[in-house]
Amino acid sequence: MPVDRRFILNLQGKDYITYEGLLDAAHKKGLTGIETELISYNGDNGQTIFKAIAKTENQSFTGYGDADFSNVNSMIQKHIIRMAETRAKARALRDLTNIGMAAIEELGGDDTDYTTNVSPAYNENTVISFGKYKGQTLVEVLEKDRGYIEYLSNKATNEEIRKICAELLGRNQLSTPLQ
């Protein structure tokens, strides 16, 4: 089962899946629940270990996740327990879905703002998942209804979609063929 590209982020040339994407793929594979258990916690250094079990009707997949003050950024440190739990769940979900790429939530350890360095895998061939053109690519919509792409370039809630629509409009205005 291919992963929906809207859940893939690229950081320095390497693809990562979002936790949301893992959940989406797991539900498509019949996820019935996730159980978590705190294995250990050390308040001095924040070292936290969680166990997660992702279940389908017939199978279960176990993953362990850890977090401590050295492998999360400073904004996450006060949420160290939840981060360890999220990492454990992500690992169990990766096994359930047979997704080999790491989850973006597994990164950390410095104060890099990944939101500015990460490029969602959106492009002009992104399929719209909402509205009257649901299921069509941005290029197909542009050919039918330039006004809708103009609307999206200003009003879409997803910033990347706004940028791509604006780029498409700029290319189209210059009569440059889309690649």
Number of strands: 6
What letter string, H or E per element, gives the SSE order? EEHEEEHHEHHH
Q: State the separation between the terminal residues, measured CA to CA.
A: 27 Å
Choose one word for the global shape.
elongated
Radius of gyration: 20 Å
| Spatial arrangement of strands, main beta sheet | 2-1-6
Structural class by helix and strand composition: alpha+beta
Describe the structure in your own words.
With about 180 residues, the chain is of the alpha+beta class. Helix content is about 35%, strand content about 20%. The chain has 6 helices and 6 strands; from the N terminus they run ββαβββααβααα. It has helices at about 20-30, 80-95, 115, 140-145, 145-155, 160-175; strands at about 10, 15, 35-40, 50-55, 60-65, 120. The strands form 2 sheets. Strands 2-1-6 form a 3-stranded antiparallel sheet. Strands 3-4-5 form a 3-stranded antiparallel sheet. A hairpin with a 2-residue loop joins strand 1 (about 10) and strand 2. Helix 1 (about 20-30) packs parallel to helix 2 (about 80-95), helix 4 crosses helix 5 and helix 5 (about 145-155) crosses helix 6 (about 160-175). The protein is elongated. Mean pLDDT is about 80; it is low at about 115-120 and about 175-179.
Short description:
The chain is an alpha+beta fold and 179 residues long. The protein has helices at 19-28, 80-97, 114-117, 138-144, 146-155, 159-173; strands spanning 8-11, 14-17, 33-41, 48-55, 60-67, 118-120.
